[in-house]
Specification:
With 558 residues, this protein is an alpha/beta fold. The protein has 3 domains: 7-118 and 287-302, no CATH class; 134-280, ABC transporter type 1, transmembrane domain (ABC transporter transmembrane region fold); 318-557, 3-Layer(aba) Sandwich (Rossmann fold), CATH 3.40.50.300. The chain is 63% helix and 11% strand. It has 24 helices and 12 strands. The chain has helices at 10-16, 18-34, 37-52, 55-98, 105-116, 119-126, 130-140, 142-189, 191-196, 200-252, 258-280, 282-297, 301-304, 358-366, 383-386, 390-393, 408-412, 421-430, 434-438, 457-468, 487-502, 514-517, 537-546, 548-554, and strands at residues 318-325, 335-342, 347-351, 371-378, 381-382, 394-397, 406-407, 447-448, 475-479, 506-510, 522-527, 530-536. It starts with 9 loop residues before the first helix and ends with a helix.
Length: 558
């Protein structure tokens, strides 16, 4: 169910399906009432047809029963289709808002959609109608009603036991499956590296170990859930037999008719069936319930706040004041106390050892990671004030360059479904990649796979630089932009930075290469997430060379 929609919070997304849920509940009510057809038909056959020896009455009752059963099947099928579409709609509405904000949101959404498509979801709607099937049993004889209620209580006890028994195995199975999937994805993403370093056998052995662990966890969960499902099924059938025997005893005593004997068996089966289905589907329902709770607890800024007013294209200034950043999943800030200001035409080089906080700073400047303290103002406004339009003003080149399956033009145009060819070519020219692309047999129509194959690392880097420059952004954020570049690529990068600055743009780049640093007016030295030096390039380099600790921080850039 592919449907474009703005991001929604869980409550708002569910409210959109309130009408469909109401219809599904009405269908459930009508279907449950039609399920009374079976016991009523049995009683009429025994009490009227056999007594009157009337074939015409039997035919009429058969036609009525056939029509009721047909309607019941149609209603149940319609309810299943509605519930499946509610699950798909919820997923479509929630995905844009939570996939980047909530860890594991994709798995939670999948579990929610799957649970809504299972018979157990329909069984939850059938639960309120269980008394409808118990009332006739009490009308036949209080003993029959009491036995049916005892059977229901027994199934509820099994359901509670099932919930307690699978809670830990379910969490373990989910964690092991996620670890195995993550390891498999890494193996699939780096086949050449594994082969070149001779790591394939060891890596495969590690993946097989993770797979075996995940399989054992899944089997343990299946065993626990399967035992309780079988126990519920056996208990229901046993209760039917007990109730049938009790009804037969009442027939022998002359307290009820033979029709009521068979009708009571059908009514008991229908009354207990929803509970049995819920017990059988409890792992999926519990997983969906826990996923829904996590989705509700996750931040949903797009659903809580109105879209920001569209601001005009700002001046190319960047003002960072006492910035502190706490990356997702980290207990505390890994970057703190960072302050600098860039005017049009300026470029800042960020240097320091691995783990110094360079990438964290650039991600914070994109707006992806909010400031835990301090502020970032772009063109005099905070990054949040620009909303989604910030991406049009910022070009970002990350360390790990993600290219997507499709042609080069679509990748440069940031996956725009109908990109302007002139803007694509202009971005490629600014990045110095136009001639490189034209030298390929299919030019801009060259197809690449996820990850960039069959392009080389240097070619991927230059395509990514063109993508960063698409749309003529004011601020370029380049994380190790010269990694993997050859001499021609470094010259193209240098020319691109010069052109960007000459046009009045600003840039922040982290690098260890001397050539890229030469294009920076200012340098910022980070060490353990704290600024150690900041100022004009030459002054900072002299200071780095003068102090041993700062010299190590500056690294090969000096």
């Amino acid at each position: 169910m592919a449907e474009e929609a703005a991001p929604k919070g869980p409550g708002a997304a569910l409210a959109e399906s309130r009408g469909a849920l109401t219809v599904a509940m009405l269908f459930s009510a009508a279907g449950n009432l039609l399920l009374l057809t079976g016991p009523i038909f049995v009683m009429q056959v025994y009490d009227r047809v056999l007594g009157a020896q009337s074939a015409e009455t039997l035919a009429a009752l058969g036609l009525i029963a056939a029509a009721c059963f047909t309607g019941m099947v149609a209603l149940e099928a319609a309810r299943g289709r509605i519930m499946a579409r509610i699950g798909a709609r919820l997923r479509a509405r929630l995905e844009p808002g939570v996939l980047g904000a909530a860890p594991g949101a994709a798995a939670d959404l999948e579990a929610l959609q799957r649970a809504l498509s299972l018979p157990a979801a329909g069984a939850l709607m059938d639960l309120p109608w269980v008394p409808i099937f118990l009332i006739p049993l009490f009308a036949f004889h209080p003993l029959l009603g009491g036995l049916a209620m005892a059977g229901g209580a027994l199934l509820v006890a099994i359901a509670v036991s099932n919930r307690a028994a699978i809670r830990t195995p379910l969490a373990t199975a989910q964690a092991d499956a996620a670890a195995e999937a993550q390891m498999a994805a890494r193996l699939a993403a780096e086949p050449e590296t594994l082969a070149a370093l001779g790591l394939r056998p060891a890596a495969l052995a590690r993946w097989q170990g993770a797979r075996d662990t995940a399989l054992r966890s899944a089997l343990h969960l299946s065993d626990r859930a399967g035992f309780h499902a079988a126990l519920a099924r056996g208990a229901r059938q046993a209760m039917q037999s007990v109730l049938l025997a009790a009804a037969a005893w009442q027939v022998l005593r002359g307290e009820i008719g033979a029709g009521a004997l068979f009708a009571s068996s059908v009514l008991t089966a229908r009354a207990l069936a929803p509970i049995e289905q819920i017990v059988a589907g409890w792992p999926a329902l519990q997983q969906a319930a826990e996923g829904w709770a996590r989705l509700c607890a996750a931040p949903h800024p797009a659903a809580l706040a109105a879209p920001p007013m569209v601001l005009p294209r700002p001046p190319a200034t960047l003002d960072v004041r006492q910035l502190a950043v706490v990356p997702p999943g980290e207990p505390g800030p890994v970057l703190r106390g960072v302050s600098f200001r860039l005017e049009p035409g300026q470029a800042l080089g960020v240097i320091g050892p691995a783990g110094a906080g360079k990438t964290t700073l650039l991600r914070a400047l994109t707006g992806a990671w909010p400031a835990a303290a301090g502020s970032v103002q772009f063109g005099g406004a905070t990054l949040q004030q620009y909303g989604p339009d910030l991406a049009r003003l910022v070009g970002y080149l990350s360390q790990r360059v993600p290219l997507f399956e499709g042609d080069l033009a679509a990748n440069i145009a940031r996956l725009d479904p109908a990109p302007d060819p002139d803007k694509v070519i202009a971005a490629a020219r600014r990045a110095g990649a136009h001639e490189m692309i034209l030298a390929m047999p299919h030019g801009y129509d060259t197809q690449v796979k996820d990850g960039g194959a069959p392009l080389s690392g240097g070619q991927i880097q230059r395509i990514a630089l063109a993508r960063a420059m698409f749309g003529n952004p004011l601020l370029l954020l380049l994380d190790e932009p010269d990694a993997g570049l050859d001499a021609d690529g470094e010259q193209a990068l240098t020319a691109a930075l010069r052109a960007h600055r000459a046009a009045g743009g600003i840039a922040v780049l982290s690098t260890h290469r001397t050539a890229a640093i030469r294009e920076c007016d200012l340098l910022l030295v980070l060490e353990h997430g704290i600024p150690r030096a900041f100022g004009p390039r030459e002054a900072v380099l002299r200071q780095a060379l003068a102090k041993p600790t700062s010299k190590r921080a500056a690294g090969s850039a000096a």
